[in-house]
Every structure is written in C-alpha cells, then in structure tokens.
Write a structure and sequence with these properties.
223 residues; alpha/beta; Rossmann fold; Arc Repressor Mutant, subunit A; 2 domains; 6-stranded mixed β-sheet; 3-stranded antiparallel β-sheet; 6 helices; 11 strands; binds adenosine monophosphate
Length: 223
C-alpha cells in the first residue's frame, strides 16, 4: 500500500501546463513587463512563461521554508534581500505550486514593500485549494486532494529524501537490502518509479552521507 501520495510529473507535462497557464494569463489581458521566479521551484515555469508570453525580463527571489531548531514550527524566509526598483512595472510572480502558500505570501509582501512594482500578480502551475492560504491570480491545475508532486527538477533530491525516510523506517526490521529490494519497496511506499539512474545516484549520496554502507552486492542500513 502507498504510504505517501506521490505523483510523478514529466518534463512534457511541465511544458504543457506552462503553455496552458500562459494562455490563461494572455486571455486575461495582463501583460507583465517582468517575471519574478520564486526560487527554486518557480525557475522552470517562469522561464517557460517568458517564452510563451514573450517576456524578456526575468529575475528571481528566494523565499524558502525553513525548520526552526525545535523542528515544530516552519517559517518562510527571504534568503537574499537585495533591493531593486520595479517602479512603474507590471510584475508576475511565478512558482510551481501553492501548497500552504506561506512562501508566496512572504515573497509578495517583500516585493510590494521593497521593489514597489506598479502591479503584481501571482501565477502557479498548481494550486492545492483545500490547504492553501492564498489563491493565485492564475493557475493551471486546481488540486483537490493533497499529493506530493515529484517535479523533474527535484527528482534526485526527492528520491534521496524518499529512500532515506523509507530505509530509516524499514531498516529497523530489515538491515540488509539488495538494490532490487530497495526499488520494489520504493514503488510500494510512493507508488512511482523514478528510473534506475536516480535510484543509483540517490543511493551513492546516502552512502556518502553514512546512512547506508555497501557490502558486496548488498546495502546495509545503519540505524
Ligand atoms: P508552500 O510555501 O507550502 O506553498 O510551498 C513551498 C514550496 O515547496 C513550493 O513552491 C514547492 O516548490 C514545494 N512544495 C510544497 N508542497 C508541494 C507539493 N505538494 N508537491 C511538490 N512540491 C511542493
């Protein structure tokens, strides 16, 4: 049974969704002078929107969730607080998804207060409506049931994190794993298949990290 609801998103879907989002923005009549990508998830959609909307100006803001020492409360922070003047410009703030909406809300507040564009609208590929604290001005897909979208630009990071979580839990009762067993368990836990290259690279990273040790053709979990 799947433990974490996950959906694998392909590059083709990203292009299709970005094209669809651009059409929605265009038909609303909003013509941004500048696109602002929310780092890191908004980079690819923002670049594609520049193409589909013929926008030349692209910049970025890094608004990130960070876990406080106690790891209970999560708070969004703007990482590099540089100053620019967007006076008179119509801006479009772009991210991949609105989940809680915390990072976008913070980015919007920072930009309005410090960069002062004439207008600022938000566009995202996806919007998880039941949990989001904000509704973007433009979105392509409304998600009604929470899912982790495994976007192509975080495939290695996510695979690593997913295997780490899985082996930390499963390693309590089973210490030795063949590669094939790790992959089968991954599919069982997450219901997706990221491909052999990603499994292998993620395992190498977990070996470097010290979570697992190679022993012949097996892997030993150090929990
Ligand atoms: P949030 O501030 O909770 O709206 O989300 C911050 C960022 O985390 C998003 O821009 C995504 O890059 C990532 N993220 C959050 N939730 C998801 C999800 N359900 N699937 C994929 N990525 C997500």
């Amino acid at each position: 049974m799947v433990k974490v609801n996950t959906k694998l998103v392909s590059w083709e879907e990203i292009v299709e969704w970005s094209r669809g989002l651009a059409k929605i923005i265009k038909s609303s009549g909003y013509k941004p002078d500048v696109i602002i990508a929310v780092a890191r998830g908004g980079y690819v959609p923002a670049r594609l929107l520049c193409d589909f909307l013929m926008v030349e100006n692209l910049l970025s803001i890094q608004s990130q969730h960070w876990t406080e020492a106690a790891k209970v409360a999560e708070k969004a922070v703007i990482k590099f607080q540089y100053s620019i003047d967007l006076n008179g410009a119509k801006a479009l703030l772009v991210d991949d998804i609105v989940d809680t909406g915390e990072s976008l809300m913070l980015a919007k507040e920072f930009i309005v207060r410090n960069w002062r564009p004439k207008e600022l609208k938000i566009a995202t590929l996806q919007w998880i409506s039941p949990v989001a604290k904000i509704k973007p001005d433009y979105y392509f897909i409304e998600v009604k049931d929470w899912v982790w979208f495994q976007y192509p630009w975080t495939r290695l990071e996510d695979t690593c994190q997913f295997i780490r979580r899985m082996l930390t839990e499963e390693g309590k009762s089973k210490r030795e794993w063949y590669l094939g067993e790790i992959i089968d368990k991954f599919r069982e836990w997450y219901g997706i298949d990221v491909g052999m290259e990603y499994y292998k690279e993620a395992i190498e990273l977990l070996i470097e990290e010290g979570l697992i040790v190679r022993s012949g053709d097996k892997y030993l979990v150090r929990v």
